[in-house]
Amino acid sequence: MADQASLKERIVRGDTVIGVSAPLNATKSELEDIFSKDSYDFVNADAQHSPYNEERLVEFCETAKELGMPVQFRIKHTRQAYLVGNVLDLGPLGIEVPLVEDESEVDEALRWFYYPQVGGRSWGGAARYGVEGRGDRLEYADWWNANGILCMQIETLRAVTNIRQLAKPGVTCLTWGPADLNFDIEAHPHHPLQTVDDCVRHALE
User: Quick check: 115 and 138 in contact, CB under 8 A?
Assistant: First the structure.
């Protein structure tokens, strides 16, 4: 597995990175079995469609870290982006914000994802990813701002048409939610974009 400190850089430069999903209640042995299936770069944990509590997220991130795997965590709702800093204090390296449609939603996530002077994230949290050996406030803040991974999930036609406003500096990548995107396409039968592939092509233009 590649050096995880460079995962963000690899994503930004367009390298292929491979993630795997795992339930938050997975045991260490279950995670070992999941990770053994391929050479993965990160594990994805989901709160949007799954129950979770903060203590369990800390345990999950610690176990994944012991196995050399950083965690990307999808938060419950777009409107909870103001809690991103708190969630990051529990151990994920990456955050995925679902159902993003507007620039203001991206701005909210950016504000709480990054430390000053890039964003407004508050300092603290013993379970933070990568904090070991970086006890100095500015050292860790600089490290985090360079290495933390922030993803916006594109799941509606409105998001696709606003794609240039969503791909702002500080957003590591845009991800796709094809199921919800298809619901929205079906609700707009006369829209010029009628497949997920159409939407992806539009985003890349």
Answer: no
